[in-house]
Amino acid sequence: MSKYVSLYVHIPFCAAKCKYCDFLSFDGESYGIMLRYVDALCQEIRAYQPIVSDYIVRSVFIGGGTPSMLDEGLITNIMAFIRKSFKLEKDAEITIEANPGTLMHQKLIGYKAAGINRISIGLQSADDDMLKKLGRIHNFDQFVASYNSARRAGFDNINIDIMSGLPGQTIHTYVDTLSRVLDFAPEHISAYSLSVEPGTPLAEDEELLSTLPNEINDRRMYDITKQLLAAHGYYRYEFSNYAKSGYECKHNMVYWTGGEYIGLGLGSSSYFQGKRFNNIRDLNDYIEKMDAISEKFNQDISPELIYNEAVRNLRENITPIYIDSRIEEFMFLGLRMTCGVSREDFTERFNKDIYEVYGPVLNKYIGDGYMAMSNDRIYLTDKGIDVSNVILADFLLDR
Ligand code: SF4
Fold first, then answer.
1. 164-203: pLDDT as tens digits
2. Which of 24, 295, 325, 328 lies 20 to 30 angstroms, CA to CA, from 258?
3. How far is the CA of 169 from the centre of ligand 1 (A)?
4. pTM of the prediction?
């Protein structure tokens, strides 16, 4: 029987580093390095071929970094290797993350021809001064041009990323961003609240930090997001994600429902065949190791041995997932979705009723109105989502 898997493909390049960013991405790399990286990535994709014949790929997410730094030829190449190694479902969701300022019409036409059918554009704010302060490479007009180009190129599934809780952001400027985004009527909106990560330039910038909105305004922005997006027909299906009906991100749903996914490329994470693991994070090391694998393809070596060597060279932090961790993850990730978790699904996966494992916790939170049960589903209420960190901690199992 076929099994399902999703693919995450990491492109670790950006035109410049945003002040708040702690993702694995490099700025200022030459085109030559990008070419070598894509070659290496294609070798990794190719190495998977002998072991994925039983799998069907439901979604591909090309994320970063800024994947739209890559021209259409390189994305076409990556997609061609994916299609050679993996079986893609007929209507697989294939997303590329993009930043305004890197999305030209020609590129978009090429992406579409390569099979990309969803674009996720990082706008973050419609306020040009704010974008500058954050170190973003684009202004609002460039976003408008990119968005319109994507529509003209035929993309009918577009996400826009925005952020609240930004330095100097007021309720007024945040609502202005929301309203301008709503004018475009994208199919999906991701609305995250800024988190200041240690080690980022923002974390060291006292002046910017002193202008972060206070807790009351932060809370108001969160409430306004929910109300305004609901009023415009966007369904909140996860804490920070809103979609028009039928446009929920299939790829993210795989993460939140405990599905298997393979991470390809530098530093990417996987959950595959009962294990979690990461790829190495050193760019030169990754390229060299995959160059060595590339040579093996020209020798008389079985594809299975090449796969074994590739994963031995690439993977680190390999953790087998035991039953208790699987149960916890099922709850932590599933409760991020507003539809919560299915009681029947829980029983099918773990061979026991959810109340056998979590009876006291569920009774407490359902009794206090933080969680609710409707038919087969158990979920956090609005009141529960507000204090989700505290609630989710109670779903850790004693070991
Ligand atoms: S574009 Fe995204 S990945 Fe690149 S530096 Fe900015 S936040 Fe980080």
1. 999 999 999 999 999 999 999 999 999 999 999 999 999 9
2. 24
3. 19
4. 0.96
